[in-house]
# Entry
Amino acid sequence: LQRCHPSATRMSDEPQAERRRRSDNDETSAEDKQYNAIKLMDSLMDKLKLLDYDTAFCTKKGFKPISRHYFALPDNPSEQLYYFSNLFAWLLSLAGVNFTPSEQFADPHTTTTNIMLELRKQMIPADYSQTKLKQGHGEEVCSILDNAAQIALTKLKWTWKKPNHVEPAAADMNASVMEEEMEVTAANTAVDEVEEVVDEEDEDFISAEKGLDVSAAPQDRPEAAEPTINIAEWSLEVERVLPQLKVIVRADERDWRSRIEELIKHEGEVRSTFLDTKTKLDKMHSDITRGLEKIASREKYLNAKLEGPLEDFRERQDALSSARQRYNSASGNVNELSKELAKLTNQLETLKHQIQEQETSLTDQAPLIKIKKSLKKLKAEITQMDMRIGVAMHTLLAWDTSSRASMFKEDELDHDENSFARNMPVAYGF
# Structure
């Protein structure tokens, strides 16, 4: 190993304390970066709250609110990079800069490249590595978002105001005064209700006295009953029973007066909210109009700038279409020639097979051996046939000889008979 890598000898010779010191420095730098990222993330969250991030970004664009350490700690690189790109585009849009965010499954290299180009265009410090931005978290991501949020706040002319401190003693005094007022109001209400009850009882008593005879003797009149109830206990009982004695008057839906009151109330609410909504809609209209004008001007600029390349592109496209046509025709000829080549190849293979069979038949000695055996057998048969022919000829010759001898003998006998017959008349005188 030391022969192959000379650096291994240097690593082995390096003191162990030096290596430990370097590892400690690396760990310290990593902890510092993480601490800086958390600090930047806290500053970013405060600025996002000032920019109404929950409503303007999360609600309108459909994103979930992030935690205070979302971009400071690693979680899901692809999801963090997608959120980072969209949040960066939204902050630049608040500053009046049109930046198109990346899609959810876009190439990370393309996304980080577009962000770096936009940072250089907006003169934002961009001394960051794209590999670190691809992670979607870290000190670099938090720094970029914090700078973009600061630019958005500056563009919106937002300034810090002095805090309005309320003294705790005054607050406590106001709270106690309010509680006392509430208690006094409740006590007055209870007293009023008690007085109403007493007045009703007095009226009943007076009406009862009117029915009596005034001229009656004092001893015949009934004596007035003296109250035996304590006033404090009576007040406590009234306070206890008072909530249960409240009468709730429910509005009738068919009553036109209640409807008119509701209409007037709703009209006031609409008028109060219309002004704020109108200003927001006017601002949105102006932003949309400005954006459309920018798009139209940019479109005209791009059309004028890309006219030459578009013409070149059309010419190249026409050339490509003609080349494709030639390619298709050549491909058809190639297919036909390939079929013909395959046919000729099959014929060649057939001829080769036949030639091989003929060669094997020419070099094979089995037929010659069969022919020799057949010749020998034929010669033997010929010899046997010659012998049979000789025997037959000899037999025929013997038969011919014997037949000729017998014929000769018959001829002689016939001749003797004929000569005897001719001589008989002469001898007997016929």
